[in-house]
Please model this.
Amino acid sequence: MESTALENFLLIATKPDNIPIGAMLVFVGFVFWIAIKQMVKNDRLIKAGKKEKIWDEMIK
Model:
């Protein structure tokens, strides 16, 4: 019986010493998404001529 690539990946990824690495990848992806979301918001404020409001938005 042959194992599929997904089964091999899950076998390796679910080993106890690899679980923190997977959690870290999820966390980094989440923080990256927040950064991109904020970047787009700031770019829209700059295009609207409200560059001075960026600081106000950051300290909310």
Remarks:
- Residues 20-60 form one domain.
- The first helix runs from residue 5 to 13.
- DSSP finds three helices and no strands in the chain.
- The radius of gyration is 20 Å.
